[in-house]
Amino acid sequence: MAILVLGGAGYIGSHTVYELIEAGRDVVVADNLFTGFKAAVHPKARFYQLDIRDRGALDTLFQAEKIDGVIHFAASSQVGESMSDPLKYYDNNLYGTMVLLQAMVAHGVNKIVFSSTAATYGEPERVPILETDKTVPTNCYGNTKLSMEQMMSWVSQAHGLKYVALRYFNACGAHPSGKIGEAHDPETHLIPIILQVANGTRKQISVFGDDYPTKDGTCVRDYIHVTDLAQAHILALDYLLNGGDNNVFNLGNGVGFTVKEVIDVARSVTGHPIPAVVSPRRAGDPAQLIASSEKAVNVLGWKPQYNDLNTIIETAWKWHSTHPHGYEEV
Ligand code: UFG
Asked: Taking the complete model, does pTM exceed 0.90, yes or no?
């Protein structure tokens, strides 16, 4: 009996596979390697290179493997790109999930944990954000993730599927061993970009806006370590395997840091001056996103281990200082 991790060569997927294998689970990884890296896949996982929109490939996998439950990370996840190329997001995220659920129903696999996002909330009315707060996405990416949640709900009613949606806030950090870490092309996320300045692959960081209604004028985010996210997926899967019902959980630390504060912590961790220049706001950035993760703590027994930004950035730096070009060999 195995756990199928779709998108297991990506950033959060690969870290979850490492934690599953560490916990002694039998793991099958499927990934189309469009944005993931084969080198990120744990050597003990059985790997299938496939696209979730390929029903035939999914059928072959479900016939070859005895799957207990699915963890689904396979999606496009860049907010900016989702605005310029929305149909890519409907195709990969919504159509892909539809084909996946068709295959799961056909093969009698009925438990799924999947990546949702804080972007389902849009501009929050208050922080910390609760799972019951209004969901009004302000970008296409968040909209496809919310629609995926809704698709799961209807399929659950019709076919008895059980799902958990995990709404991540700002995923960051790297495996403490430094073997795997964050690598996107292009990179758009704050912490990797800051650390690319420190490792010499970029000259400076642009701070997108310093006129927000926050303590220093820069945006506030809730940074949560990727290993803590990985643990939450395992807890959510076990919750479903033990008979838990459909559910939605926020995953964050419940503490906000401004962009300037993150840069300052990175300066102290790396010892590099990290030049920063203020530039215009980035379209669609909410001023503040902070999670209430009380529900994940109470229902799943989730206990984030990395609640200190210094330690989080130290793990990210271990990866970025030793892999200046990510998984690409230069
Ligand atoms: N930022 C900069 N300069 C940069 C990059 C980012 O100032 O070069 C700022 C952004 O404006 C934002 C903060 O740093 O205020 C964090 O930005 P990220 O791009 O790292 O993360 P986001 O908060 O925009 O996005 C994250 C996830 C998305 C998810 C979103 C939910 O990466 O997948 O949270 O709102 F959709």
From this structure: yes
